[in-house]
Design goal:
Blueprint lengths: L6 H16 L4 H22 L13 H13 L5 H21 L4 H8 L16 H8 L7 H16 L3 H5 L6 E2 L5 E5 L5 E5 L2 H11 L19 H15 L13 H14 L4 H8 L4 H10 L1 H9 L16 H8 L2
Antiparallel strand pairs: 1-2, 2-3
């Protein structure tokens, strides 16, 4: 007979059935939840001086969980955002167990009462046009690797794609005839189509010549599909080269996601409406896209120049009402 008090079987069902079959969460989200539990279970076992396979649901008490979250921040030096991500995975597990097991509803409520920590949102980094041009000019296009680097940098800037979306594009995802269009497979298996500039289309055509339509567009130097980590390294390497020509790059932390932010801000500056940018980037909510309008100080400055200044009323003349003063002195 299955022991419903042991947490191990619940976690197996949570990861293999609930996240995959019922919620259909993205693979990266599944990995994030898994990693949170990989850290939590050994910590709880050490704290309670027991074995991981013998941990019961109630062993993951709010007290143990709070100590785990403190351990993440003090010993593992995790940020508040990472701490909240781990807690989000624990909340989700608790909700799953509470929905399936009435005897654990009280435990579920207690766990889900553990609050997220308020964290300061970091300032969103993006590149000005000369900085982006410097990065695009950094690869040595006389080599195969340099041409691949240039193609990926241009693709990321053109499409505003997430790095995970970009590295998984296959040749068959691109419509090569007429105005080029690429199909991107985004978060939650959502698909969107994005137009390509002619220069992007030409560079990609040269990159994939002679290859099958089911192959990835971006490959590493060994001919294997480029990974997201390889894409991060590619961007960092070319940013380092571009810094000599554009010293302002040294003051910014730049990743592939920075290029996504850059695309959005440059589209906004070009007059593209915010709803089109939302669809371009694959945002579910328009609120997410509005952050670009908030951070673009250049557009705010331009908007300010279009405002009419109020006419100056002239210097203020102090006037005393004798009747009022007489009234006050009589009180």
């Amino acid at each position: 007979m299955r022991n419903h008090n042991l947490v191990g079987p619940w976690i197996r069902r949570f990861l293999l059935e609930h996240l995959v079959s019922e919620r259909n969460l993205a693979r990266n989200t599944q990995i994030s939840y898994r990693d949170a539990l990989v850290l939590l279970l050994p910590f709880a076992a050490r704290t309670l001086k027991t074995q991981v396979d013998k941990l019961a649901v109630d062993d993951l008490s709010p007290e143990v969980l709070r100590r785990f979250l403190e351990h993440l921040e003090t010993e593992r030096k995790c940020s508040g955002a990472t701490r909240n991500a781990r807690l989000g995975a624990i909340h989700s597990l608790a909700r799953f167990i509470g929905n399936q097991s009435p005897e654990h509803i009280a435990w579920c409520a207690a766990v889900r009462n553990i609050p997220f920590r308020k964290v300061r949102q970091p300032t969103m980094a993006y590149l000005d046009k000369p900085e982006m041009d410097a990065i695009l000019n950094a690869p040595n296009r006389g080599t195969a690797q340099g041409e691949r680097d240039y193609a990926l940098l241009l693709f990321l800037y053109n499409t505003g794609a997430r790095v995970e979306e970009a590295v998984h594009v296959v040749i068959g995802d691109i419509n090569w005839s007429g105005t080029g269009i690429v199909q991107l497979n985004g978060k939650g298996s959502k698909v969107r189509r994005c137009p390509l500039w002619q220069i992007t289309l030409d560079v990609l055509k040269n990159l994939v010549v002679g290859r099958a339509v089911d192959q990835r567009v971006f490959l590493n130097r060994l001919g294997q599909p480029l990974t997201r980590f390889g894409a991060y390294d590619l961007v960092e390497r070319n940013v380092a080269r571009a810094t000599a020509a554009m010293p302002s790059l040294s003051r910014k932390t730049i990743s592939p996601h920075t290029l996504r932010h850059t695309t959005a801000v440059h589209l906004l500056r070009s007059g593209v409406d915010i709803n089109t940018i939302r669809a371009w980037l694959g945002h579910v909510s328009l609120d997410t896209t509005h952050i670009y309008a908030e951070v673009d100080f250049e557009m705010k400055a331009k908007a300010l120049t279009h405002l009419e200044l109020p006419e100056s009323p002239g210097p203020f003349k102090k006037r005393l009402d004798p009747d009022t003063l007489t009234f006050l002195r009589a009180l």
